[in-house]
Each structure stands twice: as C-alpha cells, then as structure tokens.
Amino acid sequence: MLRIVPIISLLFGIGVSIGKSQITNTIDLFNPSGANGFSYTGGQIGKVWTNWFGTAFQSVAWDSSMDANSNVNSGSLKITASFNSSPNNQFEVYDGTSGINPPVNGVLYTNFQCDVRFQTGSATGLFGGQQCFGFLQFGVATASFGQDYFPTAVNIPASNTNWVHVNIPISVTSDLNLYQINDVLIHIYGPNYNPALSGTTTFWVDNIQFTGPTPVNQCAVDWNTTYQRIDGFGGSSAWSSSSTMTPAVAQVYFSTNNNFRYTNTVGVVSTNNGAGFSLLRNHIYYANDTSASSVPSTTETGFMQAAQGYGARVWSTPWTPAAGFKATNDIYDSGIATGGGLNGGNYLGSGHNITNINYASQLANYVVSMKSAGINLYALSIQNEPDADVTSYEACQWTAAQIHDFVTNLYSALAAKGVGSTKIIVPEDENWRTNLFVSAMSDPAVAPDVGIVACHDYNNTPPNDIPVPFPTFANPNAATWETETAILSGPDDTSITNAIYWATRIHLFMTVAQANAWHFWWLVPGTSQNLLDINSTPTKRLYAIGQFSRFVRPNYNRIAANNGGFVQVSAYKDTNSLNYAIVAINSTGTNLTQSFILTNFPSASVVTPWITSSNLSLVPLASVVVTNGVLSYTLPAMSIVTFAGTATNVAPVLTPIPDQTVNPGATVTVANVASDVFAPPQTLTFSTVKTPVNGTLNTASGVYSWRPPVSSANTTNKVMIAVLNNGTPALSATNTFNIIVNPITQPVIAAAASSGKTFNFVVNGVQGPDYTILTSTNLTTWQSLFTTNSPVLPWSFVYTNSNGSPDLFFRVELGP
Question: Is 778 within 8 Å of 771 (Cβ atoms)?
Fold first, then answer.
C-alpha cells in the first residue's frame, strides 16, 4: 500500500494546534474516542499502546478515573510492571504498531512533553541519594528498529505521587532519527539503580505531545553556502526495446522542449513540457560463455542514443554474469531456467582468479562496444542488487569481499581497453544504508578505483524511510547515488498526492542523505506504478521528478535553504553559470505564502515559477520580481513549485586607494584589493587604464608599482587600475588615485678632505633618488665614477687618485 510521507501536513492534521508563540502536536490525550480508529472506551487501547519488549511488563489499560488535567471526560494510560532480577528488569511500551498518523515532522519541534504519575508503593531505587520511581525514558524507534531515547531521563522521587509534567528538549540537528517521528517509546530500565528495581510498579501517562516555536514561512537561501554536487536525475529502461521506448517517449523523459504534442497508446493527444532527465540506467544482457573475449549486449541501444542526444549521461548495470561465472551455473531469464532451478546463484570470483579476470574483460568489452555504437558510457555498475536472493528473474549474489576484489580487476580491464574514464559503481544493493560497499571503500588500495557508491531505496517505509548519509570513504571523491526506487504493489496512483510523495523522497535524498543523484525504477510504459501509465500517459509523479530534473542540472551544487515553516525547500546553483533553482514542496491542503531571502546572491531580479499541482503539470507561470533580495510567492495547496532564475553578474568591488606621496626616485607600491560576491570567486584580471610611464602592474594580484623619475618632481600623476571578472557579461570596477611626487631637493657635498692620493667627502640630500658621482678635470667633460641606488643618507664617498692629477672636480647628479 502506498504510504505518503505527510511531513508538511501536520499543521492541518488532527492533534496539531498553534498558539501565539508555539505549535503543539498532540500524540494522545487519552480521550475516550482513542486514536487511529481504536476506541479506548471500547477496550482497544492495547491496539494502540502495547509492550515492545521486556518481561517486567504486565499490562496497559485506559483509566478513565485518572487524568492529569482532572478532566472527567478524559483519562490516561495506565501501565503496570513487576521488576525482579534479570530478565525481568525492564520493559518498553510504544505506539509503533499503529504508529503516529500522520508522523511528526521533527524539524518543527523542539520539545517532548507529557505528564506522569506513580502509585504509592511502586518499586523504587536509589538515585542521587534519594529513592526514586524507576529510570523513566522516552524516545523513538530508529531505522534499524532500535531505540533512540531522548537525552533526559526522568527520576521522580518516591515522596512525590502527584502528577509531574515532563518537558524534554529534542533536536533534529543532533539526532537524525527525529527527522520524522513515527512512534513514542516509554521505557523503565531497572538496572540503572543499585540495587536494581524490585517489586510492582503502577504509573500513568497523559497528554503526550511535541511542541515547538510557531514556524514562519521564511526561507534563507545562501548562495555562498555550498553542499554536494548534483549529477542528475533519471531512471531505468531495463529490458525495453525500440517498439516501446520510442523517440516520442525519449522526448518526454529527457528533453527540455516545451509545448510538444505527445500521443499515448490509446490515441489521446496531450501537450507537454519535457522532464529533462539527465541520467539513464540500462540493462546488460550476459554473454553466452565465460571467454574473456565475449561481449555482453543490450536491447536498449536506440533509446540510449536518444537519451544521449538530449544531453543525458548513460550508464549500465548487469543483472547477472554468464552462467559459468556462478556457483549454481544457472540463469533465469524470460521464464526459462538453465542449469537447473530458478535461483540466481552465487558469483565465483575471488581475488585475481580467472573468473574475475574474464568477467572484468567481458564488461570492458561491453563498454567498448557501446563506444563503437556512439554511446559514451558514463558509468558501469558491477551488479544489480548483489544482496537479492531471488528466483523470479535473472540475478546473482555477491559478497562484500567479492565486490572488493572485482573492483581492481574491472578498473584494470577498462584501462587496458582504453575506456578507463568510465566510472565504476558499487554495490547497487536493494536497500539504502547498505554495508556491501564497506570492504571496498575502506581499503585505500581499492576505494580510489570506485567512482560512485550506489544503493536502491526499497526500505522506504517507516521507520526506515529517512535516508541518512553514507559514512566517510577512503575515496572522498566517490559520488553517492540512489539508483532505483518504486512502489511495486497496490493500485496505480497517478494523483498529486502520489506526486508529492515522490517529490518529498527526492527532497530527503538531496537534503538529508546528500546524494549526488536520484533514479526512479522503470521508465518503460505500459504497466502501473511507472512514470508513464498503462496507456503510456505521463503521470503526476513524472512531473514531480521533472520539477527537479529539468532545472537542477548536472554540475549544479546544492546551496543552503533553511526554512522556518511547513514548506520543504531545497536550492541549487550552477557551477558554470549564474543559473539557479529553488524547489518548494507544499504538501498541505492550504495555500501558503512563502518568502525566500536570497543572501549573497548576485543580482537576482526575476524568476519564473514552474508548477505541478492537481491541475497543472510542469507548467511555467508568470515571472515574479525579486525585490531587495526577497522573493515572495503564494504556493498553492498540494503543489511543487520550482523557481528558475539566472542571477545577473555583479561587478567586483575594489577597496579605495588613498592618494600616495613619494619622493622622486622612491618606488611606490600599491596593492589593489578586489572582492567578489561569488563563492568560489570568479577569475579576476587587473589592468591599467591610466598610468605614468614605466608604471607596472601584476595583472593577477593587482599590485601596482612606479618609481617616479627625478623629472617628475613636484608633479601630481593620476593612476587608474581596473579589475574585470569573467562573468557573463564580464563586469569591471576601477580604482583612481594620485601619486604626488615631492619637489626635488638639491644634494649637498660637505666635509671634503684629502690625504695623499685619497679624496673623500659626504653626500646628503633627499631619500629616494639614485646618486651618481661624476668627475672632471676641466669642468667641461664629465665622467661617471659611481652610481648608488637610493642610498641611505648621508653617504660617504672615497676616491683614490691613482693618476695624481693636480686638478680634479666632483659633482653629484640625481636620477633616474
């Protein structure tokens, strides 16, 4: 049965109330009417609240005579237990059998609250120097069916048999298990005391609820806070043929064309906009033998070529190797079992044995054959669902060790055949949160050969439906992909409710799991639960995916989008342009006015909203003006809206340079500092617009230097430095400042003295110029003796007259 994830609809569901300062999601008030359709006056509380584990438990009951608010028309949950030695030392009661409907969106709530009361004479233990009624904990079930208790336990003194209000802070930021709350746990752990609890306990619980601040539908979108790269969105065409996967179908899935006509298999014509899928996963047929030269094949070449023609990346997955590569020597394909039985069998490869060598060679041959057909495979998976023990279709089971060993064999085979750029995908097992990749991705000798770590998402029902991030790999550059998911049973649901469900799944994978790519299962039309229905008509869920895939293109990055309200928002920007997209999902039954604060954006002036709702399917609406960095829009009830925009390039900003004063001959150096709003910054190039002769500029760093000549003394010289970014259009900024050269100061020769053939004197003057000593015997012809560059003054000059000339004159000349 389809289960919608109603993360946003809590505000409008039963049990949710809003005050001036907070919202309250009431789980159970223990009123006579009960919960989830079970009547408490009818004795059905055990259908809602029941023992999960712990043999200390005795019973649950609805007690109409005990209510925390003294409400004669209500009651409470009465729990009895009997503690003694292990294993009768704990118990847990929870409402997970029927669950919380709808689940609680833990993002919106900051506190868990309830009221508890213990009966006089209940079992006690020593805590903090006083006797207390048990170590009482509250929490939620985890994805792996474990227990996640809230951070504060309750120890009520034995002297207090009145109602006690419990208020425990919770935080989804520090605990992802709280992202979606499907149940509440009530636990007493006896051994926490020394000695442990012993005896009978009776206590009551009432008014179970979650509270939080009243949300504001205001989302801060920060251009500069960047998360994972996006590789794309797509699905699988496995086992299809050209008769079903026609060019018209390819246009629906992969194009970004607008207003094209499409005819389904019963002749109904519709006008559509392409969903813009950017990834296609196809099926590899196994080779007929185990020879290293054999080539696996596919029936989907035409569709792969069509998808690639629209710009999609194409990648392939084998469902089984040849029978001889498997322990049971069998394959199940098209209803015909060979080699005995329907079991898919176990792979035989290990280390560098002949099975691994030959099968790796076959897969590399397949990549080469696709290249010959004009298809450049982006990636190649090792095995579809290597953990699946199935008997109804071709399959093969692999261990984590076998995946580890095969990676290096396949990497070498691809490189040897000249297709080493094809990325290797592991392990593609059935469920998110796998461990089959751990062996390969923990080995520094193997992990670098893996390009993508991928899993399917068939554990998408509570409490397993919040996809957490994968752990850190030995190869941090490996991407994380979700590569297959669908609802495989039940009636086909082509409604907007179903579309909201799938949009929410994508949102969770982008924002919580931080996946780089997301794939639906089957693109093949003609059956229910696919993206084209049994008549090959596009479904609402196709358009819901298109709200992401058409606008969030490969090499976009997710950026921060922190919303305080009920709308799920994610945002993305292109790394190679100023394009961006903001996807907002309103899964409530009410129109919501949502504002987006665009922080650190280049100039953003106009966006185009595209919408999928109950009556519109991936349709653009009138453009919306962004005013002072704020986008405000009313999101229709039960809708997905993508705001597609292109930011306007913004000129870099130069820090002003004050006028500079310098002596003639002294070098002045100025650092032009430019800032750019982009993260990462655009490429900035500096140039001179106006400069004195011989001024120099480093075009990369913006450092400008000039050594004014003596001839420029007592002048003012204008300098203009520009910086240009590489945006579209390229924009620049200019710094203008003056370099004022001081008047020249005549040098002075003093303290002249001679001794024998040696003559010396002291030169004094302004700091900065070069000082050249010239000599002459006739005051007409002068000869340079010595030049010193910007000496420290005063400066002593010593001259030895080796010729003993009776008449010798000196003078000082400034330069340059």
Answer: no
